[in-house]
Amino acid sequence: MPSGLLTFFHSPHIRKVGVKISADLKRLFHDCGFIEGKDQPFEGAVELGKIAKETGAAMQANIGLLDLCASILKHFLSKEVDIRVSLSWDQNPLPDAHIQYAALDAFATWQVFKALQGGNIGNAVDASTIGGTPVALFSSDNSRIVAHGHIVPERPAKYQGVNITKTRLLVVVSEVLVPGHLVPGDLLPGKES
Predict the structure, then answer these.
(1) In DSSP terms, which residues pair with 148 in a beta bridge?
(2) CB–CB of 167/159 below 8 Å?
(3) Each residue's pLDDT tens digit in the chain (193 positions)?
């Protein structure tokens, strides 16, 4: 590996931003034949998932770039498996589809990072959150955003037989990102998911 590129990877002052970027740097370190504890590690990893969780843009730090693009940038990022895990990444020159995939992946990563650095992403809501506030609804395991909506201004005690509490608010869904997402039974009048 050229010395300039090694300087880039070894420097903790040059940020390498990405989703699961620490694991990528570790894999690259080993692929280059370096040994942990003996050789200077690759440093400067900035994890987008961790930033997303800290800023309230995601419930969990293990959120993927696809979900970050949908929730923060409001755009779909194609992560086609046949390109992502293709053996064609070793070709020189790379196929056009692979070049486009890599360029979009890098661009999306940078755009998400810029958006997260800009703040105004949001926080968890509760009974004190003002009606009309836009919200993102997460999957039951809190790993991805499944819909967008807003909190209704009225605060009824019940809605269709379900109690509205300090931890349960009524939301009008305006955009569904994951069609067919399973709603837990305890949130429905029939108690069936």
Answers:
(1) 136, 175
(2) no
(3) 677 889 999 998 888 999 999 999 999 999 999 999 999 999 999 999 999 888 888 888 999 999 898 888 888 888 888 998 899 999 999 999 999 999 999 999 999 998 888 755 556 777 788 888 888 887 765 556 788 888 888 888 888 888 888 778 888 898 888 877 766 676 667 777 6
Give Cβ neighbours of residue 149 (< 8 Å, ≥ 6 apart).
Answer: 134, 135, 137, 171, 172, 173, 174, 175
Of 12, 19, 14, the C-alpha closest to 112 is 19
Phi/psi class of residue 185: alpha, beta or left (left: φ > 0; alpha: ψ in -120 to 50)? alpha
- Site of tokens 């105004």: 120
Query: CA–CA distance from 47 to each of 37, 44, 157 (Å)?
Result: 23, 10, 41
C-alpha 28/C-alpha 59 separation (Å) is: 29
Spell out the domain ranges in the chain: 3-117, 134-187
* Distance separating alpha carbons of residues 1 and 174, to the nearest angstrom: 50
Task: State the CATH architecture for 3-117.
Answer: 2-Layer Sandwich (3.30)
Q: Judging by DSSP bridges, how do beta strands 16-18 and 45-47 pair with one another?
A: parallel
